[in-house]
Amino acid sequence: MSGMERRPTLHDVAREARVSAKTVSRVLNGEGPVAAATRERVLAVVARLGFRPNLMARSIRTGGPDSTVGLVLPELGNPFFGALAGGVEEAVRGRGLTVLLGCSGGDRAREAEVVGAFLARRTSALLVVPAGGGETLAAAAGAGVPLVYLDRPGPGADCVVSSNRAGARAGVAHLVAAGHRRIGFLGDLPASMYTRRERLAGWREALAAAGLPAPDALVAGARTAAAAERAALALLALPEPPTALFASNVNAATGALLALGRSGRRDVALLSFDDLPLAEVLEPPLSAVAQDPALLGATAARLALARLDGDATPPRTETVATRLVLRPARP
């Protein structure tokens, strides 16, 4: 048996252990009475052969959930979402659960497809950065699967978000305290996106608290870093340009850095919502409102696990604090 090339099956284990396939199944699932000596013999053969149960097939046979958690993200290249996924994985690993990753591209139809695929294999829980709409909630509720929204709230389910408005307010207040009176806002698109709306509200609140105007001419948006670079250059070309830019996500900050670097504009301050890799080694260093995406993911996973354990309290929202990371210019 040790020279087998193919993957060992449950029937291989039964033959080697000199028991029925049903007895092997009972041992592996912890079901029904099995003599201690028989159990030890079966487990020894399982270890020797390297047998691994087909969890998906077992879930289909029994009608129960499998050992996975479905995580739906809008994009996979953004380091923020990579760290968020790491937080989810770290939190569920101790429960013997594996994370399945899907990408919606920020599209509702694609999100529905991914969620449907996860539910078809009876995933134990769903964690979703929502593209909008209530389709995911309806699908999860119909399957009896716990659902937690991440980064942006959704209808009728638990959600975990960052302190977007308070973080933006603190970042812009720092720019005001540094003497800036015209501060541009460079945000994500679409303008209806929850995180953009909250961070824009924080920008407005900080300016209002300082008695400063918040004209729409100082607000721009872009989906990609390249588009953000063009939007930043357009802000800087205004008749009364901003002396500082508040970039409300990684792509906006990257585009603003490219615009300032390529135009040689060292006289314009930049502060980012979301810390960038290597922000500390930039010249000048980039200050930022830092989120904790790993904690966002871990918190969402803990909510989902609590629901799996029977928590039937009403849906709740948990907010993860941001922190202002100030990096002064080098002498």
Automatic annotation (TrEMBL):
Pfam families: LacI, Peripla_BP_3. Gene3D superfamilies: 3.40.50.2300, lambda repressor-like DNA-binding domains. InterPro entries: HTH_LacI, LacI/GalR-like_sensor, Lambda_DNA-bd_dom_sf, Peripla_BP_I. One of its GO terms (molecular function) is transcription cis-regulatory region binding. Residues 8-62 form the HTH lacI-type domain. Keywords: DNA-binding, Transcription, Transcription regulation. PANTHER family: HTH-TYPE TRANSCRIPTIONAL REGULATOR GALS, LACI-RELATED TRANSCRIPTIONAL REPRESSOR. This is LacI family transcriptional regulator. It comes from Kitasatospora cineracea.
